[in-house]
Amino acid sequence: MNGFTWSALVLSLMAVQTAMADVRLPNVFGSHMVLQRRKPVPVWGWADPGEKVTIAFNNQTKSTKAGTDGKWKIALDPMEAGGPFQLVVTGKKTKVAFDDVLLGEVWVCSGQSNMEWQLQSAANGKEEVKAANYPNIRHLMVNKAISLTPKDDIEGNWTVCSPQTAAVYTAVGYYFAQQLQHELNVPIGLINTTWGGTHSETWTSREALNQNDELRPVAGKLPKTYEEVIASGQERTRLLLEKQQGGLPTVAQERTWSDPTLNTDKWKSMNQPGDWEWGGLPTLDGIVWFRREVNIPDGATLSKVTLRFGSIDDKDSTFVNGQLVGSTKGLLPRSYAIPDGLLKPGRNVIVVRVVDDSGGGGLAGKPEDIKLSGENLDIPLAGQWKYRVAQVFPSSFKPGPNTYATQLFNAMLSPLIPYAIEGVIWYQGESNAGRAYQYRKAFPLMIQDWRQRWGSDFPFLFVQLASFNAGNGDSQHGSSWAELREAQTMTLQLPNTGMAVTVDIGDPNDIHPKNKLDVGKRLAAEAMRVAYSGSAKGESATGDASRGPMFEGVRVDGNKAVVTFKNVGSGLMVKDRYGYLKGFEVAGSDHQFHYAKADIQGNTVVVHADSVTSPVAVRYGWADDNSEANLYNQESFPAVPFRTDTWKGITEAAKFDDK
């Protein structure tokens, strides 16, 4: 080794030793952060073993020594709201300073895409962003990450709410903070740790899953490395495609798939529009062909016809009767002019070759956006399409947040603990709807897991699933979404919990309803009830009314069922221009439900159907799309969907390891 190389090595070692000596804090701390008022405030980090660390903040100065593992933690005494302050952490060789630190209320915002949904994409979001000048609202975006073991840090930065920063804030969290600040007049800090499409089990620790006999096998499937995950994904996909279509085609075979005479009897079917990962191709990135036959009636004008799609995720090449009519890249709406003479009365074939590079894939528009239209022609194309996989990209095998349980807890939640918080707001459940009965155990388990690790029964507020026609589910055919809402309602048995009911502000055709303003306001109303009512911090203006009218009991009076409610506030009311109460059904001993007439009488609703002479069970809002349900209290909080029976549900047998 020559002298130059030896000197470089010595300098490198000295640099490493110096870096190791630096006092360091996790990224949950930073300039512009909000620290929780009126509670002890843990501050922690790393230094050299035995190194003295001193914290100075808001007239408090405290010191400690790093342990043999280099970790240290200091708890600041409770403080009142205020700021801005500077927090300074000093070690033997280095000093870390965070500026513009406020004291106020800190809430964790977590869940899947409806909590992740950005303000700029919400209803009136662009106008709201322009007016988002709230310097006392702060937001920490936790970057997406997965891990098979608990991590000790996250990536992310605190920002001050302004028109320059608010566009990417969680919309629900933003409106929640806006309302809380109005009520409490203190700074509000939001910690946004979300990931769309995720199960509750990935947000739960391995130790918690191991406490439950039904969920313990889920934790036991965790591999040691992600190399194992990739190998498992490759084998899983190979077996899936072998079962569905006998494997992947050759290039020559794929070239024939636009031919309208092709025999597709062995092709599978999938509802479109929709994410193909939910339609039978989980985790798949690649190329999938979709085909649909269209029957055009005699007499239709077949000139100047347009084939319209909403957006397609990510690229398409579209054929009509074997001829390419258009190709587009990106999530832009498609509108392809059909050459005159290409269409004919009777059978026509539309074929779409979809290339998906990452994430979800498929026809991504709204159902009403997919159609064939002309002068006297309007043929909707939403519904069942035949499909076949042509290629699978390597990215299909990259581990995702749902590949195994606990991964988001490890990477995006555990590193936040024990940062002092007031509570959690949560919007998730869509991804668990297929296992709604299991959610009765999984969801409370996750809440208790978080509370145990924080060492506090902090308020946990969540959003009940909004109305959405996930699969035409109802009382006649069974509804997984209704069963998931029931599991969420049952979770209210845990102390210090609250639920925002959103049956009236969903979108039957969109799993991501754009009205996040009312969601945030209803969560804030529950926060005032659960977290702040009866204290010097604030008072709930609505008492228990913010919970919404909730089923209390039922009695049968002849051919009528009389349902009583709690949380009625100033009284029950119906929101309908004609005064009709909707959403109620009644069944006799044959278990056949019938739409019922319902009338408000005081704090009760009297329900009856002419075809049911002896009522046995009543249901309200029991459907995937339950947007017609219109019972409220006078404070305008919607009633909680319910059923009085305990008849077998369609998700009782579904388990996590069936996925």
TrEMBL record:
Keywords: Hydrolase, Signal
Domain of life of the organism encoding this protein: Bacteria
Signal peptide as annotated in the record: 1-21
GO biological process: carbohydrate metabolic process
Pfam families: SASA
Molecular function (Gene Ontology), one example: hydrolase activity, hydrolyzing O-glycosyl compounds
Listed InterPro entries: Galactose-bd-like_sf, SASA, SGNH_hydro_sf, SIAE
Keyword Hydrolase: yes
The keyword Lipid biosynthesis is assigned to this record: no
Domain (Sialate O-acetylesterase) ranges: 105-207, 417-527
Protein name: Sialate O-acetylesterase
Origin organism lineage: Bacteria, Pseudomonadati, Bacteroidota, Cytophagia, Cytophagales
